[in-house]
Structures are given as C-alpha cells and as structure tokens.
Design a protein that fits this description.
The protein is an alpha/beta fold. 45% of the residues lie in helices and 15% in strands. It contains 16 helices and eleven strands. α1 links the parallel β1 and β2 (31-38).
Length: 385
C-alpha cells in the first residue's frame, strides 16, 4: 500500500492551487494528485492534468467541457463540469485531503460536502468559515474531520499551538501588512484606482484577495475565521500592522508568554504544513536572514480610515448570519470596484448598508445562509446602482 496522501485541489489554477502543485511536485513520495478543479481557466487545467494525471477533473464553466474532455478523456482522466459535479467529486473514496482554494462563497458547499464524506480539509478559503463557521466546525467535529488552515496567519497560530493544545489561549494576535495604502488618509483613498490597490507590497495573490488586503477586509475576514478555527471570543482576537510580514501571527498564553511563527512571506510553507501535518517536510524555499531585516515594526490598524475591519468585528459580535451578509456584500463591491463601478471608500458604505438592511437571522441553517447570500447580493447591487 502507498503511504502517499491523495489530494483534491479545488481551484488548482489560482494562486494557492498552483503553489500547492509546486509543493506536491517537490514531494512525490508524500503526495499524489487525485482531483483538480477550475472555474474558467481550461487551458491551464488541461496543462496541469497532463502533468499530474489526476483521476478526475471538474471545470465549473460547462462551456469548456468539450474542450477539456477531448484532450483528457483519451488519457483516462475523468472529466466533469458544473457546481453539482464539484460538490460530488470531493466525496470520492480515493481522496485523503481536500485543499479548498476556491475564491469566495463558492467554496462553502463543496467544503461541506467533503466534510460530510469524512475528508480532512486544508482550508485556503476563509469565506467558508466566515459565512457558516458554526455550522462547518460543528459538522467537522461530528465527522471527526480536521480542518488545517492554509492562510499564513492562521497557519502561524496553528503552528504556535502544536504541543500547546492543553493550554488555554489568552488571545491571538493576527498580523497585517497594511496593504498598499498603509498610513494613507481618507482624502487620499477617495480617488484611488484599482491599479493602485492591486499592488500589494509583500504578497502575490489573486485580484479579489489583493483588493481585500488593500481595504483591510481580508484581515477582517481572518478575524472571523480565527474565531471559528480556534474557538475564541471576539475579545480574544487582536490585530497589529506589521509591514515586513515576517511574523505571520502570534499566540499569547495565560502565563503572559507569546509565541510567534516567523519566516519570509511564502505561501508554499503554510500549504505544505497543512498537507503534511503532523510532519514538517524538507524544502528548498529561501531562508530568513535576520540581518536582512534589522528592524521589525508594529502599528495599530486604522479602522476609522479602513472601515472594513471595524465592520468585520461588528459582524463577529452579532454572530448569526451577519458575517454571511458582510461577505456577500464584500464580494459584490470588490467585483464592482474592479469594474470601475464604485469608489474604494464606497465599498465600505455599501457593506455597512447591507448589514443594516438585510434580514438578520440569529440561528441560521444552511438554507438560511444560502438565502442570505442571495438577498445580500441583490441588495448590494441596488446600493451600487
């Protein structure tokens, strides 16, 4: 029998997905690719499939099915399309770990289906826990499924907790780079364009996450995700701006000591740890040199200027479907900003209006989350138009 872990990568053509394939390629004795999925990028999905020979692939956009089938079926690779196929393929018996690297709300249902099938989750889709954290974590506990965080900040916390699971957390400290507009005031932000917002100083990410980082919504979503991953209260989550992005996050324990996980900004490290846990595999990734960073600095986040962080804490405090509203509204406004239909500061205004106007549900079911997401998207578009 093989000791290799069989990996399904949901979103294999995105930033996390492509880096995950690099990790798998560098450790062929530990991992094998079982499933690859993409939404639109048929050409890259075909290239990846020819190289890694998965058992099956799914293309979300059904218009590309024939193109992919004609190339991959002769190679013995099963080809499926559409959302229902994505939700089904994650339940394959041959899968050990599902890496959820889809962007946004789209990751929720496939992740739930994978958990229901008893698959361990490497979670790079923070929206899954933002939208339905209580439901997802309860289901994972019921099914005996582990959720391994892939976000660098949550991976850092997880790494700091190894060997400490019996010790209560006093608080966690999420670090934020501050994005491309760190230190800027609202006057400056009134006129910024997407080209400026897409220039992240430290990380190479997709457009949606990069805009979220510029607005501090990415950190707000991470605050909510951390609450569910580590079973925390709102007052146990703190955020500090750390422009160098060397300390990826910290945990403070009840004896006042703080553990920090450090390293050069490289998403392959948390990806590999999530896939290989509890082992640490050898890598040839660049090593951190303290002499290259003689100063590590920290600042308070400016949540008055960057309202999204405050809105995320507000949603976290309300619980229920509030974070689902926050996430859906944010996805709509980010898309609108990338299409030059809304201003940078206007995004926060629409999100705040949605939180005030969309029906609040205190104890939502999955159906409630789905209907809340739909209602919020309609309402957000009305506010934009």
């Amino acid at each position: 029998m093989s000791n290799k872990k069989s990996i399904a990568i949901l979103g294999s053509t995105g930033s996390i997905g492509t880096q995950a394939l690099e990790v798998i390629k560098s450790h062929p004795d530990h991992f094998q690719v079982e499933v690859l999925t993409a939404q639109h990028n048929a050409d890259l999905l075909i290239q990846q499939s020819i190289q890694y020979r998965p058992n099956a692939v799914v293309i979300g956009n059904e218009a590309f099915y024939d193109q992919i089938f004609n190339v991959l079926d002769p190679l013995g690779i099963k080809v499926y399309s559409g959302e229902k196929s994505l939700a089904s393929v994650v339940q394959m018996d041959s899968i050990d770990v599902v890496l959820t690297a889809l962007v946004g709300y789209a990751g929720l249902v496939p992740t739930i289906k994978a958990i229901e099938a008893g698959k361990h989750i490497a979670l790079a889709n923070k929206e899954t826990l933002v939208v339905a954290g209580e439901l997802v974590t309860s289901l994972a506990k019921e099914k005996g499924v582990n959720i391994y965080p892939v976000d660098s900040e949550h991976s850092a916390i997880f790494q700091c907790l190894v060997g400490e699971f019996h010790n209560p957390i006093e608080k966690i400290i999420l670090t934020a780079s501050g994005g491309p507009f760190r230190g800027r005031n609202r006057k400056f932000l009134e006129s910024v364009k997407k080209e400026q917002a897409l220039k992240h100083p430290n990380w190479d990410m997709g457009a949606k996450i990069t805009i979220d980082s510029a607005s501090l919504m990415n950190k707000g979503l991470e605050v909510i995700e951390a609450k569910w991953l580590f079973n925390l209260r709102e007052d146990q989550v703190d955020v500090v701006v750390h422009p160098q992005s060397i300390i990826h996050s910290m945990v403070q324990f009840e004896d006042s000591s703080i553990k920090a996980q450090m390293g050069l900004p490289d998403m392959r490290v948390p990806i590999m740890f999530a896939l290989s846990y509890p082992d640490r595999l050898k890598s040839d990734f660049p090593r951190f040199n303290f002499m290259d960073y003689p100063q590590l600095t920290f600042e308070q986040p400016d949540s008055d200027t960057f309202r999204n962080l405050a809105l995320a804490f507000h949603a976290l405090g309300r619980e229920g479907n509030a974070a689902c509203i926050l996430n859906a509204a944010n996805e709509v406004v980010v898309s609108a900003f990338l299409e030059d239909k809304i201003s940078f500061l206007g995004m926060s205004e629409v999100i705040e209006n949605c939180l005030a106007k969309v029906a609040y549900v205190k104890t939502p079911s999955l159906e409630d989350y789905i209907s809340t997401d739909k209602e919020t998207r309609i309402k957000a578009l009305e506010f934009i138009n």
